[in-house]
Each structure stands twice: as C-alpha cells, then as structure tokens.
Design a protein that fits this description.
Order of helices and strands of chain B: EEEHEEHEHHHEHEHEE
Shape of chain A: elongated
CATH topology of chain B: Rossmann fold
Oligomer: heterodimer
Largest interface: A-B, 25 and 30 residues
Bound molecules: adenosine-5'-triphosphate, magnesium ion
CATH class of chain B: Alpha Beta
Strand content of chain A: 15-25%
Number of helices of chain A: 14
Order of helices and strands of chain A: HHHEHHEEEHEHEEEHEHEHHHHH
Structural class of chain B: alpha/beta
Number of domains of chain A: 2
Structural class of chain A: alpha+beta
Strand content of chain B: 25-35%
Strand order of the largest sheet of chain B: 6-7-8-3-9-10
Helix content of chain B: 25-40%
Distance between the termini of chain B: 31 Å
Largest sheet of chain A: 6 strands, mixed, barrel
Largest sheet of chain B: 6 strands, mixed
Number of strands of chain B: 10
CATH superfamily of chain B: P-loop containing nucleotide triphosphate hydrolases
Helix content of chain A: 55-70%
Chain lengths: ~425, ~240
Amino acid sequence: MLRLSEIGESVRIAVDALRINLMRSMLTTAGIVVGVVLVVVMGWTIKGLDAVWEQTIGIIGRDMLYIDKWNWAGGGNWRKTRSRKDITLREALMLKERMESAEMVIPMARNWGGSIKLNNRTVNSSIQGTTYEYGNTPAGVTIEGRWFSEVEDLQATRVAVVGYGIAKSLFEDIEPVGQTIKVNGHPFRVIGVVEKRGFLFMDFIDNQVFVPLSAFQSAYGFYGRSFSVAVKAGNDRLLDIVRDEAIGHMRDIRNVPPGEDDDFSINEMEAFDAQAKTIRTTIWMVGMGLTVLAFIVGSIGIMNIMFVSVTERTKEIGVRKAIGARRASVLLQFLIESALLCVLGALIALPISQIIVASARAILISGLEWDWVSVTSPVIPIDLLLIAISVSAIVGVAAGFLPAQRAARLDPVEALRFD
Amino acid sequence: MSDAIIDIRHIAKVYEMGNEEVHALRDVSLTVGANEYIALMGPSGSGKSTLMNMLGCLDTPSSGTYLFNGQSVGDMSDDDLAEIRNQEIGFVFQTFNLLPRASALQNVELPLVYSGAPRSERSRRAEDALTRVGLADRIDHRPNELSGGQRQRVAIARALVTQPSIILADEPTGNLDSKTGQDIMALFDELWRSGNTVILVTHEEEIARHAQRIIRLRDGLVESDQPNEFHATPL
Ligand SMILES: Nc1ncnc2c1ncn2[C@@H]1O[C@H](COP(=O)(O)OP(=O)(O)OP(=O)(O)O)[C@@H](O)[C@H]1O
Ligand SMILES: [Mg+2]
C-alpha cells in the first residue's frame, strides 16, 4: 500500500539527488547509454531490413513461380540437381499450352555469365531471353523506354531491355535508350530500362539484360541450355492451385514416374524469405548479445553508485525512518532514483542513436550509393523509443534493488548515529 | 494506569560489543500519563538516549514489556512501528536532523508525506506548525539559511505537525547557546501548556527546572523519579 504522496516525494528526491551529482550520474550511465544505443540501432536496422525486404518482394511479386532445373535457394543435393535433365523449350511451351489456372506462363532462357559492352566499357551480366509477355509481370516494369513488342518477339529483333544496375554501371550519364550495346558480342539496340527491384543480396536481379527469346536463340542458340518458366499466378491466393497444376503438368511432360521426386525445382519468393530471416536473426542475436553485455556492465555500475548513494545518505534515511518512513517507502525512494538514473541514460542515448542512424543512412545512400536504403526510416520510430526507455527503467529497478533493500533494512538508530 | 501513554516494565537493553556486553539499560520501569512534562537526566553513558529511542519506538528492548497507549510494542511489525513514529511520536534531536536540501516547509511536511496527507492539506498544516513555532516568515528558507535556534524550531514544528501523543526531545538545547536554549524551552513550555506531553533529555539543571517531573538515570537504572520541587507554572 504505497501512498501517492510518497511516490511524488520519491520522484522529487530522486531528481534532486541526480541533479546534485549530475556529472557523476551521467558517467555512471555510460553502460546503459551503450546498451540503449545498441538496442535502438539494432531495432532500426531490423525494421529497415524488413521494409527493404517487403519492398523487394512487393516489386517482384509473391504470385510468381519460377520453374527451373536449379533450386535458387541452394538446398537439396547439388549433384542430384546437376544430373537432372535440362528443361527444353519444347517442355516449356507444352507447359504454357496446358496451364489453365495461371495468368501468364513465360518460357525463359538464361546465360549467367554474359558480358555487355558499350563503346569500350564492359560489364558482366546475366542475359535473359524471354517473351513480350514478361513485360506485363511486376519484374518487367520499365522506368524508361518500353518492353519489346510481340512483333519484335516474333521477328527476333535485336532489341534489349537492361536492368537498373546495368543502366547505372554501364551507361552512367548517357541516356541508355537508343544506344547500341554488344551482348556477348552481338549488337543490340537498347529500348528500355527496368525499374529497380533488388536490394541487399537480391542485387543480382538488377544486373540482367532482357532480349526477345527468338533473338537470344538466333544469337546464341539453345543447345545445352536449360530453360526456365516464369509463371504468374495472378493472385496470391491462387498460388497453391497454380503450383499444383504446374507440378502435375511438368511431371507428366517430363515422364516422372509416380513416387519419384520432381526432377525440377519450383522457385518462389518464399525461398528468399528464409535468407532474409537468417540475416535478421543474425543481426538480432549479435545485437542482443552486445546489448545484454552492455546492460550487465551498465547495471553493475548503477548498482555500485546506488550503494554509494545509500551510504552517503544513511543519516537522511535514519531521519526519514524516525519520522515514519516505512521500509517500502525507503525501498521505493531508491528504486525510483535508480530507475530515473537509467532513464537518464536512455535520454542521453536517444539523440546519439538518432545521430548514428541518420549518418549511417546518409553514408549508405550517398556514399555507397545504396539508394534502396532510402526506404528505411530516417528517424528512430516511436515504439523503439518507448521500448528503450522502459527497458532502461526495468534495468534500473533491477540494478537498484540490492542497494535499495539495504537502505530499507537500515536500523533507524544506527542510521541516525552515522555521519 | 489505563490512561498512561507510556507504560514500560523491567526494560533492559544489552549491546553486544564483540565478546563484551554493554548494559545500556538494566531494569527500567516507568509510566507516563497525558500532558506530563518530564526531564530525563543523568551522567553521560547512563542510558538516557537509549531509553528515549526505546520510548520513541526507534529501538526495541532486549527484555521487558512496553505498552504504548495500551498496545504492546514488542508485538508490532516494523511497519506498525513506523506508523506509530509517524502518527503518535514527535522526535526532536540535539543536531536538528533536518534535510539540508529541503526548505523549512518541506521539512515540516515530510511526516505528512509518509502519512499520506494530500498536498494542499500538507502545506496548510505545515504552515500552521511553522507559525506556531514563530517561523511563519521563514518557510521557504533552507536549513543553512537559518540560525541554530531557528533550525531547532523547524525540527519542533516537524515533530508536532502530526499532532502526536508525545514529543520526545534528546538534548534539544545541547547545540544552542543558553539564550537561544531558553527560547526553545519557552516553546516546549508553551506546547506543554497547550496540552502536549513532553519528555526531554538534558544535562542542565536550569533546563530540567522547566519540567514537572525529573527522572534521573545512573548506570542503566532509575536513580530517582520525583516531581520537580522548583516547578511553577510560568506566568
Ligand atoms: N549501538 C551501541 N552499541 C554499543 N553500545 C552502545 C550503543 N549505543 C549505546 N551504547 C552504550 O550504551 C550506554 C548508554 O548509552 P546512551 O547513548 O544511552 O547514553 P546517554 O545517557 O545518552 O549518554 P550521553 O549523555 O553522553 O548522551 C553507553 O555505555 C554506550 O556506550
Ligand atoms: Mg545521549
């Protein structure tokens, strides 16, 4: 049964005590400051990562399936995967013919180790041969120029749509549309630039060049190349149906006997979710470890200074007890002081964290040119502030408990004799 | 003696000092009724402060019984004792024991903080108490801005602000010059006349003369307990 009047008095005393020893108080909170900075910066990083990830997934589309010889997320037995039969154009076209539930089925041919040359500058890229329909998927949205048309597709016109990354690294200040580049030695006219889609470890998808499948074939041939098939379900909820249908057809087309494993992989955005989750968990664990360490060191400091504070104020405690302060009153007084000390640490830490977050963001965006970092929040989100302050208060109460208990248990007569 | 505020029987207090035992009080019995005015005297080390702490529920006896307003103090919890100290007892110390960083008003309000009185009532009652000790014009001063006599007045105001059953003062004039000491004694006389019960410890016969009854201790025993023959209700 704590009384309101005592809480008010305790806060007043605590603020007073901290004010008298302001310098000492601020130094004591160093550990807490570090802990709070770590918590906040880590929280911001994870939130930023989530935002970046959501954006990536949103652009690529959760309703896309990529049927491929390879499992993009790694996984599975590599030898077994390698020994799979290639997916042929004929199989891809058969699948396209049979699929009923999907919005789009697009055969694609890929050359991972392509080189793109403009004048005397060369960059590496993967070259994708695909159809005009790919321009209607979220992955084929252009920010400049356009996607190739059905006619260009049919006529095997040597036109190319370049990924955002290529546009940046190869063309720099030059307007890409209208330029002629050499794709593995063959001249192609650039007609469009794809919107930026990849972030972080997904960067590779911006380093692609898209050409009509027919042009790809006439330039490089299809021999010894496995095709993949991009399937757009058209709707997240249809994904399961579309996947089942695609698997059924593919097994039938490739004559996989019942009971045997699929001899192809279905790649979905979810495969990358696992990767994003791993990064997230790693940041979280490292950050948490450091934070806990900082808070432990911090709370030892707080506990120490609170013991000093109790000793310095033994006489005062005696006086308070003599005029009727109960144990709980004294305990509360020191717990509040200790909690406020830590909250002071949090208040010092917050502007520091904000500066770190803002400068890290600025360096990543303009220094490293990681523009995708701009989807992260420039300010520390309010819920992180509240978490930081409450965690500090809790740490303060925990660190102050033993000193406060010593104060509460002081014998009044002994305490009054102290000077 | 059912109307006694204080009723102690065969109280002893032993301190363990290593393997030595210090008998601060050996066997003390006494009763104190309402509106008594008592001076506690005796040589240094005779146990006066020990007895006062006991009476003030700051300390507990090693043996014997203590009834405060008919209730056995020995059976009380720490919190019960704190409540009695808060509500029923006003303590005045030789060294004032004010909180240095608090104003006179805040010092006097403190017991009311622990009794849970609302803010407005606290300041009103504290102001009344300070007015009673003649410090109405010093309420915002801090202890270091007050003279010794004024500090002791603040301490007395703090002791009486909860309207306790009894006021205990351990050498209240011990740190004051004799003129100021007499002023403080006039204040105790006034409190007593208006119905308070007062017990004070002193070494000076001149101070003890203000009391109605004088108890002398020696070696932890009551040596004498007599009415003050010189006592006359001051004019
Ligand atoms: N906490 C303690 N530990 C050990 N001995 C103590 C303690 N408190 C008091 N004593 C002893 O008990 C005896 C009585 O002490 P007390 O303080 O009651 O004397 P007093 O009459 O108030 O003396 P003075 O006039 O000097 O204030 C003394 O011998 C003292 O040394
Ligand atoms: Mg004494």
